[in-house]
Amino acid sequence: MSAARATVRNETHRAAVAREEILLASRTLGAATRQTDLSVPGIHCGGCIRTIERALGALEGVERARVNLSTKRVAVQWRASDAPPPLIETLSALGYVAHLYDGGAEPKDRTRFELLRALAVSGFASSNIMLLSVAVWAGADGATRDLLHWISAAIAIPALAFSGTVFFRPAWRALRQGRTNMDVPISLGVLLAFGMSLYDTVHHGPHAYFDAATSLLFFLLIGRTLDHMMRERARVAVKGLARLAARGAMVAHADGTTEYVPVNEIAPGMTVLVGVGERVPVDAQVEEGRSDLDCSLVSGESMPRPVAVGSTLLAGTLNLTGPLRITATAPASGSFLAEMTRLMEAAEGGRSAYRRIADRAAQLYAPVVHLTALLTFAGWMIASGDLHRAVTIAIAVLIITCPCALGLAVPMVQVVAARRLFEAGIMVKDGGAMERLNEVDTVVFDKTGTLTRGTLRLVAANDHDPAQLAIAAAMAAYSRHPHSQALAAAARGPREPAFDWIEEHPGLGLEAVAGGAVYRLGRAAWAVRGATDGDLAQSDGGTVLSKDGRLIEAFQFEDQIREGARQAVAELSRQGFAMEILSGDQQRPVEALARDLDLAQFGAGVLPGEKTNRIATLAASGRKILMVGDGLNDAPALVAAHVSMAPATAADVGRNAADFVFLHESLAAVPLAIKIAQHADRLIRQNFAFAVAYNVITVPVAICGYVTPLVAALAMSMSSIIVVGNALRLKGGRPARLSQASASGPRVAMQAAEAPSLR
């Protein structure tokens, strides 16, 4: 009794510790709600999502439980007035190992390696057993046949023991909890086929079905491995965004000393020193200094943003030209970069609805197959009284109804479509995106780096005085500012001799002395005596050259339209797609580009969160959105859209977040990808029709006892071959082959009543 009491006390103590840890690890969402994030590595399908959300949602005090299949995390919101709910204990009772998510480095992806090893073993076993089966089919008899069967058994036993655990473990866990999932009929079919084959081998039977068991396992492992790898790709975008965050920063104390502090320890009110080339660690305000910032993370705009004392800085932006002394206004967990990461993860979680639909169909499949096989067994036992024959026919029913053709109907077309797209210079990162791309009816474009190249060009370079341009280019060679790089690239002929002295003033421009004259290249208010930025249209992104405080030349810059942009927009318009531009750039360049492309709908000065909200608004109105963007600021919108695409020139985070990446310069890749997706959709529907017809024809034949397990395995394999062959009919193309639709063709734009402008 004392031992029992001690055990109870230990369990009570562990539960109290767990709940105390949950309280410490949770974060406040409001006055009445807290949220706890859990890492649950065992989540792998829609059944897991339903089970976990239902169990946690039923706990007292829990208001909402949301599973993110991509990150394998669970976000639980619970009432702050109550004691922390027993989250980890509840998940443990369901068979899931869980721990508090700390936001640190994620463990190595062991599941991927386990699946690949299981796939390799099952592939080796099935190919070798199939070769041995050929000899049996060719007429081997007596002792030779028995020997071949025993060799097949010797190969199959370790293969099933190793590779089969991928399905056996989840099936057993589900059965222990009184549930069923797709792994249960798979495990039954494999084990019964193996057990019957072993029985026939021991009793010198003419048939053994080791090849059917291992081949079934091999094909199903292909699908499970591809499914896992696609989910892992979704996590790469969030990891890439996290890498943009500074690991720490130099903090200045009141006594004049400085100390390097990890970013998570920077608190509001601390003074932080940010050097040239460093990223701003947390949201802050400039206390001292002037500089130019690369804010493409925030707005996607290619123009650097000048900052001075009092300017607001956002975490993740890059300091370009001068050191800054800033005051933190928010902790790292509440920064702009952290908010972007949360936006992406929230959008990822929304995509799980597609997987849930597929798992509901799979959940229906399992009991139907079980019931069919059981009724077949019972019927033959009553009709013949022959146990062996009844079991053999039931196994044949289980095998012949294996959803290989149904399971391959989508992924095989996606694989072939991915190859066709690759041949056209378009990379597919998410197989499910092919299906979603076919559903698109609205295309949303980013501006900088998508519809345009994202590199500045001097406007009307030939209209400038060559001598003045040469001076400006010579000065610009000493700076990495985008305006300077554009001027240096536009220089014609020999440059002016070296200057006597030159210096860059952060946030202002370049100053040089040559022959006693003082030249300044940069902001008008600084370079020209008595001038203001507004006087010289500096607000439009220009820069000026002055000599001894007198204006001698003014330069304007523009972004270049991407090759094929006009043709792509015209092609999409001809096909009836609604289109609009969402850009963080200024009003005037966005409006000019929209006019050039004949697009009536556009939004300028749109921040990342606003882009995501706009996508959500369009989706709520029934639109299926294709988001085409490249910038770091587009990543949450790319993830939130129904499907997304980015050019290869995009930032790493943009490429990782997108479902498609096109390698060619031409934007014609967008309508081409849609065309291939539409063809793929037709083939998928044909494959589904064949899979249904296959089951309608073969299942009754198997139930009637005209099919042996060997024939069932062959029929199952043949159905898979037919599905694969149909998928290979998919035709590709190249961007250049798209019809060159006239830019003056009919325009399809959203009416104001349907999609109000963001302007």
From TrEMBL:
Its main location: membrane. CDD domains: HMA, P-type_ATPase_FixI-like. GO terms for cellular component: plasma membrane. One of its GO terms (biological process) is copper ion homeostasis. Coiled coil: none annotated. GO terms for molecular function: ATP binding; ATP hydrolysis activity; copper ion binding; P-type divalent copper transporter activity. Keywords: ATP-binding, Cell membrane, Ion transport, Magnesium, Membrane, Metal-binding, Nucleotide-binding, Phosphoprotein, Translocase, Transmembrane, Transmembrane helix, Transport. Gene3D superfamilies: 3.30.70.100, Calcium-transporting ATPase, cytoplasmic domain N, Calcium-transporting ATPase, cytoplasmic transduction domain A, HAD superfamily/HAD-like. Residues 738-759 are annotated as: Disordered. Signal peptide: none annotated. It holds the Pfam family E1-E2_ATPase. The keyword Aminoacyl-tRNA synthetase does not apply. The chain crosses the membrane at residues 118-138, 150-172, 184-202, 208-226, 364-383, 389-410, 688-708. Residues 34-99 form the HMA domain. The keyword Nucleotide-binding applies. NCBIfam families: ATPase-IB1_Cu, ATPase-IB2_Cd, ATPase-IB_hvy, ATPase_P-type. PANTHER family: ATP7, ISOFORM B, CATION-TRANSPORTING P-TYPE ATPASE-RELATED. Belongs to the cation transport ATPase (P-type) (TC 3.A.3) family. Type IB subfamily. This is Cation-translocating P-type ATPase. It comes from Limobrevibacterium gyesilva.
